[in-house]
Structures are given as structure tokens and as C-alpha cells.
Amino acid sequence: MARMLTRHITIVLLLVVMASLVGAGCRRAPAPTPTPVPAKELKYGVALALSGGSAAITVPMKRAFEMVAEQIGEFTVAGQRYKWRIIAEDNKYTSEGGVTAARKLLFEDNVKFIHETGSGAGLAAQPIIEGKGDVLFEAVVASHDILGPDKPRTIRTYQSSNEYTPGFYRWISQNRPDIKTMIQVNPDDATGKVNSQAIRKSAEFFGIKMLADEFYPRDLKDFYPLLQRVLPKNPDAIFLEGGSNAAAFLKGARELGYKGTFITITLYPAWVQIAGTDVMDGTLFSDPAMGSPYTPQPWNDLRTAYLAKFGEEPGGLIRYPYVALYVITEALKKAGTVDDIAKIMRVLETERFETPMGTIVLGGKELYGVDHQLILPSFVSQFKDGKEMGVGRVDPEEVARLVKQIFGK
Amino acid sequence: MTAASFAQMALNGLMLGVSLLLVALGFQLIIGVMRIVNFAHGELYMLGAFGVWYLAQRQDLNYWLAILVSVVLVCIVGVLLERYFLRQLRGRLLPQMVITFGFVLIFQTLALLVFGTEGKAVSSVFRGAVAIGGAKLSAERLAVSLISLVIAGVTLALWRWTKAGRAIRAMAQEPDGARLQGVSLPATCRLTMIVATALAAIGGGLLAPVFMVEPYMGLPVILKSLVVIAVAGMGSMGGTVIAALVLGVVESFATTLASSEVAAMVYLVILALILLLRPSGFFGHELELE
């Protein structure tokens, strides 16, 4: 009996042990870790000059687009994660190039967001872009014709001469009493013609007399005959806009004894390299001086990162890729869609966008008929003792007020 | 218009003309002797300028030595171009234009890839300004102009008074007759190409400190050189010198008195008029490919 009981107990114990072992082996496997769904690529087509005289100023923009896209990283729109993929095409800063680049980006790469730099390129490509109906066109284009009620899907990031000249020439009239007369020298293309009208209007509004408006073929190499037209009038300041070849004008002016002030929009590193720091000393320009306390810190940080990566100064135009990508990213989030361009446009027209550099809004209805112009601060900078430095800044609200005052209908 | 401003315009114009002179002389040699319209000739000028930039600015070589080395290197390119491509194109206008334009794109693209898109600066060798009769000129422009004129003069002297020059002239005037006299066409073409390339490369090197060096600098120069040769007429080296200087002065006056835009049109108008009214130019003869 005892032996049978022991045997039963032993069997029960063995069964219990076996059950425990089986139970342990059948322990529920942990739930599989869900594989993260990779962020979808959102293509941003970027058409700008990657060759030719203008490439010196636009290649940094292309690189800035890529760096800012990386900086923004992944973002969520309506529950889906996205990240920007920049696709660059060379528009050669010409009408033909702009159209060719746009066609490639729209119909081969199927982008829904496209950028063009250059008035000729942008204006030529615009009918194709707008005609497609479901693409947002972001333009760095000087010509005001790029905006209008008949261009419902176009926004302009570029601070045109309407936006930057009022604050800039007000600063000059208040701080540089030695500048009473000016001659402006612009390329004879759409950008140059548009700039010349705004510069004349703003300068004269603040009491600076414009002695002449001169134009030249953008690829001109020998500026001596043009200097012969300009220098005898002895202006206190000469405004010059152009590509890196225009440095020959500045160099030639100093060689021929001109002592006045040069004024420009963007101080190209190539100009300093070609003309020399002595020639460029004292030049006033309306782009932000990168690295200056007047310049928004995120732009300074972008410049620092660009310098570290490429070993050369990027120039002030890199701010446009920055604001474009940040504002459009925020607009997509607010609109809750990446496809409904009409909805995204309504958001852009009506909302305020918080970016690392502050609040940005779109305006310009009184001038262009639509609120599709990004309003940014305007700057006054100077090249002095071999360095760019900020000397003045006008905040967006004041910019908008001055624009209305000088250009408003 | 004052006398001083007239003198300034005239001197600006002469300097403009001289800046074209060496390239135009080389172009004239190739068209006149080899009977080839070589649009890629302007790219040899561009390569000469880049060669000087690279050697003088990047390798710290003495500027004048940089020009010499650059000329030698570009001449090698020129000789290879002549030997393997241009020689086959003699007498065939359409293939000449297509293939030499192709080389324009090839050289421009190579320059873009190797040197990048940004314009390059070569440090000035001569500094300051010089006053001549009320006109002011940069010392650099004046020096470059004088050196170019000396080189052009030496080229004309070689063309006129040396055996090699006579052989080249004979080949330019009457190829069959020259061959019968024992002048070798391949050797003459090779020598012509070397001289023409050297002139273009020297022109590029001398002008590198004056203008910006960039991959697209060659084509505008060759298009203007075409107008110079049309005005001068084929085969006239002296006429080329005169035409270059006159056209430079015309451009200077047109720019100063009218505008740069008008001056840009002037070349095209002159070319059209010459081709219509005086296709042989003023000093030479009409282009005959063979």
C-alpha cells in the first residue's frame, strides 16, 4: 500500500514537473516588435543654374535645400511620416533652361513641389507648372509678374526689390548723408529691369537722386566702355547687380579712380575674390551678413554648417531654401495633406508659420493681388576690412508698412 | 564730347580690339591655311587661361612661366585635335561646324567638371592706372595690350619673312601649287595649328588677370573673331589686326554713346552687311574650303 502510494506520489510529482517544464517551454513568445514603416519621400524639385556665370550664387542654394531637408528630417502629415527628397535640375538661368528643367521635374520625376530661381527661367516655366494643376510653385524670382490672382499655386520666397529696397534706402538716407546721387547698373534681362524700377522709386522716395539707369548683357566681360558712360557723371554711389563677371566692373571702376560707394544686393564671394578686398571695401548690400547678430541665428547656423561641409562661403541666398522648406513643411502639417495643393495654398494665405527663425506670414495682396509673397526682415550689410557685417535690419511688419507706402496703389 | 572722353573711348576700343587680336589671328590662320572653320579655337583660349590660373594661383608658379607652360600644354591639345579630327574635315563645311561645335561642348564640360562653375581670378601682375592724353587706363590693360601687339607683330614678321611663313602663305594661297613646290600639307597644317593654338593660349593667359576665367569664356571670343575675319577677309593677317582694332573702337563708341545692348547688336549687323555686300572682306579674299 505504502509502495503504491509512493509510486502514485512519484508519478504525480513527475507529471507536475513535466507540466511545469512544458509550460515553461510553451511560454508565450513576446509580441514581435513592429518594424517601423519608413518615412515616405516627398519630392521637391529644384531648378536653378548649376552651370554658367550664375552658378556661383545658385549652387549654394541647391546645397542649402539638401542641408535644410536633412535638418527638417522626418515630419508627420495626417498620420503619415514624410521626408523631403531634393531633386535638382540645371535651368541655366535662362527661359529655355527653366522650361526644360520644369518639364523634367514635373513629367519624369513627378514632383508636386517645384522651385525655380531666375526671372527668365521662372516666368517661362510658370505656365507649364500652373497648367499642371496640382503642383505648388515656389519661386526665387525678381520679376513681380510671377505673382498674381491668375497664378493660384505660386508663392514667392525671394524678397524682391519691392520688399527690400524701402528699408534699405531709408537706412542709407538716414545713415549715409554722403550718398546723395546714384547710378544703377543692372543686367538687361527681366530681373534687371524689375530691380531698376523699384530701386529708383525707393531711392528717390528717400531723397537720393538717380542720375542714370544703365543696362548690360549679363555675360559681358569687358566693362571699360560701360564705365566710360558711368564714371564721368561722378555719382556718390553706384548700384551694380550681376553674376561673377560683374566683378570686372568694380575692379575697373577703382582702377579708373572711382572713390564712391558700391551698392549691391548680394555680395558674392566670387566678387571679393576677383576684384579684391580693397576694391570691395565699404560696399553696402541688402542681403543679410551671414554670421552677423542682425541675421537670424538659424541662418547663421546654416552658414556655419555649410562652411564646415563645403569649405567656402555660401552667400546670403541660402536663406531662401531655409524659409521655403520650413514654411511649406508647416503648411503641409496644418493642411493635413501633401496632395491637395488648393488646401495647402489656402493655409499658406491665411496662417502664420512658426519656424526656428520666428514667425513668417505671406502677404503682398495690395501689390500683387494675392497674399503669396513671403514677408521676411530686410537687412543692411556692409563689407568692411575684409568681412561682412550687419549694420541695420527692418522687421517684417515695418517692411510691409514701407512697401505699402512706397509701392501701394 | 570732350577731347579727353574721345581719347578715352578710342583707347578703350583699341584695348578691346587687342583683347581679341591674338585669338582672331590664330583663327585666321586655321581658316586661311587649313580651310577649316574651327569653332573650338575659342576653347583653346579658355584652356590657356585656366592653365595659367591653375599654375600661377594653385601651384604658385611665376606668372610668365605659367603662361609658357600653359601654352606648351595647350599646343599639345591643339596638335592632337588637328591630327585626329581637323585633318579629316578639310573641305567639308557642315562636318566642320558640327564636330568643332561638339568640341566646344566637350571642352566646356570638361572645364566645368575639373575646375567647377565658379569664375576664377588670377592675381594682377601690373597695378595702378596710367594717364594718356586725358584718358585713364589701368596699367594692367595697357601692359597686356602692348605685349599682345608685340606678339602679333612677331607673328606677322614670321608669316612674312621666314621660310616657314612663306610655306604657310603658299599653302593658304594655292595649296596645289605649294604641294608641287615640295611644301608638305600635313606638316604645314601641324605648324599652323601650333602657331594658332599658341596665339590663343597666350591670349587666354594674358587676359586671365584682366577678366574672370570661366568655362564659357571661349565661345563669345570666337564669335567676335569670326566677325573680325569676315571684315578682314580670308588670308589677310595684317587685315585681321586692322579689323580687330577697328571693331574694338566701334564697340567702345557704341557702348559709351548708345548702350551695351546696342553694342552687342553692332557685331551682328556688321557681319550681316559684310557677308551680303563684301564677302571677301576689305583686305583678303572670300572663304573657299577647297
Largest interface: A-B, 34 and 38 residues
Q: Strand percentage of chain B, roughly?
A: under 5%
First-last Cα distance of chain A: 116 Å
The portion of residues assigned to helices of chain A is 40-55%
Average of pLDDT of chain B: 89
The tally of helices of chain A reads: 15
Strands ordered across the widest β-sheet of chain A: 8-7-9-10-11-15-16
Which oligomeric state applies? heterodimer
- For the secondary structure, the number of strands of chain A is 16
| Major sheet details of chain B | 2 strands, antiparallel
Low-confidence parts of chain A, pLDDT < 50 over ≥5 residues? none
Round the Cα radius of gyration of chain B to an integer and report it: 19 Å
What structural class do the secondary elements of chain A suggest? Answer: alpha/beta
Uncertain spans of chain B: none
Tell me the layout of helices and strands.
The complex is a heterodimer of chains A (409) and B (290).
Chain A: H1 2-25, E1 40-48, H2 55-72, E2 74-77, E3 80-90, H3 95-108, E4 113-117, H4 119-132, E5 136-140, E6 154-156, H5 161-175, E7 181-187, H6 190-205, E8 209-216, H7 224-230, E9 237-240, H8 247-255, E10 261-264, H9 269-275, H10 277-280, E11 284-285, H11 297-310, H12 319-335, H13 341-350, E12 353-355, E13 358-363, H14 365-368, E14 373-375, E15 378-384, E16 387-394, H15 396-407
Parallel strand pairs in A: 1-3, 1-4, 4-5, 5-6, 7-8, 7-9, 9-10, 10-11
Antiparallel strand pairs in A: 2-3, 11-15, 12-13, 13-14, 15-16
Helix pairs in contact in A: 2-12, 3-4, 5-6, 5-15, 8-9, 12-13
Chain B: H1 3-34, H2 41-58, H3 63-84, H4 93-115, E1 129-132, E2 135-138, H5 139-161, H6 163-173, H7 175-180, H8 185-207, H9 218-232, H10 237-257, H11 260-277
Antiparallel strand pairs in B: 1-2
Helix pairs in contact in B: 1-5, 1-6, 1-8, 1-9, 1-10, 2-3, 2-4, 2-8, 2-9, 3-8, 5-6, 5-8, 6-8, 9-10, 9-11, 10-11
